[in-house]
Structure formats: C-alpha cells, structure tokens
Amino acid sequence: PVVGSGVRLLSERGQHDCIARLSRAMSTPEGLWDIGGFALRVESAGPGCEPADLLFASTGTGRIGRHLLRMTRRPMSEPMTTLLPLRAGSRSLLLLVQPLDSQARHFELSVGLDGSGWSPVAIIEVGAEMRGASPRFDPLVRQLEGTVVPTWVTALREPAYRTARRLGRRTH
After folding, report:
1. What whole-number distance in Å separates Cα of residue 130 and Cα of residue 134?
2. Which of 54, 56, 86, 127 is the most exposed place for a label (fewest CB within 10 A)?
3. Residue 34: is it exposed, middle or buried by C-beta count within 10 angstroms (0-12/13-18/19+)?
C-alpha cells in the first residue's frame, strides 16, 4: 500500500473487480510498430464507490520517458503509464503497468509520486475475454477517489472525450 497518498485504492489491501481492455492505438498487425494501450475500470474505486477508469499507454519508465509515448513492435509486452499525472493532495501521481508474463495475463501496477521511483502496489490478473463487450472508458468522468485531474490535463483531454461521448450516444 502507498501510505499517505490519500487514494483509498492504493492505501488499502484487498481484491477489486475490474474490466480491462488491451489495445493497439493504430491497430497495426502484430510485429509492426504501434503504441500499446491498457484501459482499466476498477469497480468501487471512484467517489461514492462508483467505478474509476484508468488509461495507460506505451511509454518509458524514467523521470522523463514516463511522460513520452513510445512506439514498439511488442506493445503488450512493454511498460505503460498513465502518461499525464493526477493530483493526490499536494502530490503528483503517475501509475505504471508492466506485464509479468509473455501472455499479457498478469500485470504489476506501480505508483510514482512526485517523479520518484516506482512502488509496486498490486497485481492485475486479466481473465477471460468478454465477447461483444466494448465499454467506453472515460477517466475524466470516472475519476479515482482521492485524486484530481489537473486543469491542464482536462484541457488537453476533454475535447476528445467530449466527441467520444457524443458519438457513443448516437450508437446506443
């Protein structure tokens, strides 16, 4: 647990039901360069025990590289961070997922506070695929309890999410 982060999910031990989606940003065939994506919805991790969404993309893991997208031939086998920070009280918080096996079934979740090194906090086990399910993930609407999205991050992300929300309403 990350004591003192003010983030319940990171401070309390326990199991949490999740929905995960692994993706290739440009949908290139296996073996070609792409950016990996990992979307995670953690049930009961948002305010009022609502779900919280976290989005990760292929990046480096160093102090600067963790904020830069990274193309790779094996995006599901590489580290992915939340790329843009969250605020947890007065601290800057970034999350990292790294595969623990070649089948991309087990991932380690780590936390970096204020640009520091990574502290492992959880293991994510990806289960069976849900056929036909394609939930929309929106970390601006489904925020992690104890965190705040910085204003500048919202300004960067909101136009794309607004469009996705509008398109999502048309398809349902």
Report:
1. 9
2. 127
3. buried
